[in-house]
Amino acid sequence: MNVLQGIQDRYSAASRTAEPGLCCPVDYDPKYLRVIPAEVIERDYGCGDPVSHVRPGETVLDLGSGGGKVCFIAAQIVGRAGSVIGVDVNDDMLALARGAQSVVAKELGFANVTFAKARIEDLALDLEFVDTQLSGSPVASYGDLEKFEARADRLRRDSPLIPDHSVDVVISNCVLNLVSPARKQQMFAEIARVLRPGGRAVISDIVSDVDVPQAMRDDTQLWSGCYSGALREDRFLQAFRDVGMHGLTVQKRDTTWETIGGVAFRSMTVAAYLPASVDEVRRERMVFYRGPFAKVTTDDGTVLQRGVSLTVRADAVAQLITTPYAEHVLIDDFAGSLQEPRETGQSTTECCLPSPDGGPGTAGCSC
Fold first, then answer.
1. What are the Cα distances from residue 327, in Å, to 188, 199, 290, 339, 344?
2. In this predicted model, what pLDDT tens digit does every residue of 45-61 receive, in sequence order?
3. Sign of the C-alpha dihedral, residues 117, 119, 123, 125?
4. CA–CA–CA angle 139, 144, 146 (5° rounding)
C-alpha cells in the first residue's frame, strides 16, 4: 500500500468510527459546539486551535477540513457577514461534513459554510469536476492523459476553485504534515496565492526537532498518524518566508507530544502574514518604531530603532502596515503628523494619498 492510499483509508475509517489516537486532542470553547452534531465532534482530528484567531466578517479557508468541526466553529465566529470554505480530498470526510451542514445552518439561522474537494497543494483544481470528467471520459491512453491534463490546466486558469487573493485567513489543523515532501513547497505557495494582500494564515501542525529519517517516512502508519510528514520546526517557519509571507508569530508551542525513534514531535500554531499591496502605499514613508525592544530587524532586513524615525521604502511599509507589526509602528504622512496603522488589509495612509488629479488628499484629511 502506498502512503497516499494509506492516509485515505485511515481517514475514511476515522470518518465512520472515532479514532482517539489520531493526532492530539483539542479543547474548543463549548459554546461553539452546541450546534454541531455529535458525530462530527467525535470524529475531529487535530493538534491545535487556529480557529480562535478568526474574526467576524472574514472569508475563511480551512485546509483539510475533515468532518467540518472547525468550519462550523468558524461559521459562528465570522457570522452572517462572513463565509467559510472547507477543502478536503477525502470523500467520506466530505460526506460527514456535508451531512451536518443543514443541521448547523438551521441552528444558526444562516448558512455560510461550503465544502469542496481538492488537494490542499492544488487549490485551483476542483476534484469533483475532475471525477465527473473522468467518469464520462476515462483515461485509457497517453493521448487521453494529455487531453485530460490540458483540460485540468484550463480549469485551473479560467475557473479556479479558490481564486487568487480571495481569502482573508487560511487556517489548518494538523493537515499540512500529510502532504508529500515533493509537494510541500507548492502547498505553501498555494496558501500565499489565495490570500488577499494583508491577509494571514494561522496554521496548527505537528513539527519535529530534527529531520524525520527516511525509514520513518516509509512507514504508512506513521504518515497517516501525522508523524512522518512533519517538517523540522525551523523549516516549517522558513516555508512561509519562502513564499513571501512575513511577520511570523508562534502563537502556541506545546511540549513534546511524543518521541519516536529519537525524534521529538510537538504541536505548534503559527501565524504568517501576506504583505499589503505596494499600490496601497505608493511611495516611501517615514516610520517611527514605538518599542518595546531597543532595536528590531524586520523580515526584509529593515532595522528599526525605538524612538527613531526612519524613511522606509514602499515595499517595506507594505509589510509594516500589516499586523502584527502595525501596533508597534507609526507611519508618517510626510506632513508632520503620524498616522495610526489600521487593521490587516487596510491602508494606513489612505487619507494622505494624493488625489488622481494631483490635488490634496481625501476630504477630511489633516495632511
1. 27, 16, 9, 11, 11
2. 888 999 999 999 999 99
3. negative
4. 120
Q: What is the dihedral of CA 62, 17, 10, 262, to 10 degrees?
A: 90
- Residues 22-27: contacts with CB within 8 Å, 24+ apart? 22/224, 22/225, 22/226, 23/47, 23/174, 23/206, 23/225, 23/226, 24/174, 24/254, 24/257, 24/267, 26/173
**pLDDT band, residue 361 (cuts 50/70/90):** very low
- pLDDT for 245-259, tens place per residue? 999 999 999 988 899
Amino acid at 169: V
**CB contact at 8 A, 235 and 209:** no
DSSP secondary structure code for residue 358 in this structure: S
324 preceded by cis ω (within 30°)?
yes
Chain-wide mean pLDDT for the chain? Answer: 86
Query: Does this model's pTM top 0.90?
Result: no
Cis peptide before 181 (omega within 30 of 0): no
Share of the chain above pLDDT 70, in %: 86
**Whether the Cβ atoms of residue 45 and residue 14 lie closer than 8 Å to each other:** yes
**CA–CA distance from 329 to each of 107, 309, 311, 326 (Å)?**
43, 10, 13, 6
Check residues 321 and 57 and name the one with the higher pLDDT.
Answer: 57
Measured between alpha carbons, how far is 174 from 281 in angstroms, rounded to an integer?
36
Amino acid at 34: R
